[in-house]
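I would like you to help me understand the sequence and structure tokens below and explain how sequence relates to structure.
___
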Amino acid sequence: MSVREPVLNPIPIKTLRPTQITVGFREVAAKRRQWREQSGDKGSEFLGKHMVPVVLGPKERHYIVDHHHLCRALLEEGVADILVNVVADLRTLKKGEFWIYLDNRDWCHAYDGEGRRRDFDDIPSSVGDMTDDPYRSLAGELRRAGGYAKDITPFSEFIWADFLRRRVKRTLVEDNFAAALTRALKLAKDETAGYLPGWCGPNPIV
């Protein structure tokens, strides 16, 4: 069996097409800070280690299937191009069947900042047009704080975000993120979260 090498090409970030509606703006801000720390002598090395997986879609467009936060951060930082790894060539598909295929492969996430399912047409055509879901930021920070483990389940952070959305008030997330995180850490150890990817179980009884 022959093994195909990844096809790597620098692509203008502004031409990349997202496959989700939202990102967490706090997460984007953290990626921007990370880039600033690396953008000097280590900038090229950093970009080389963060190649973006994409699928080729209708009209030869490149659709991101991961690293949306990084792409948004680099765009806001004025970075023009990024390396991509083409993981599937779907150029022969028509628009409708293309999105259905992505949906069935868990390569897209057509949910808005309120956690509502939307039409594929509502997915923006530019990474710069993705909107904020503060619960995605809360879910990301919760994982880094040890609330749950990193998991290979597609969109696992969004699954946690939806869990938190129903249990932590949005005003708390927006006005007092630290308090929202404290609340989220408690919720993450509850057995009601046991179905979620990366769940670490309840705190042991001391």
Summary: The longest strand covers residues 81-89. The chain has a mean pLDDT of 92.
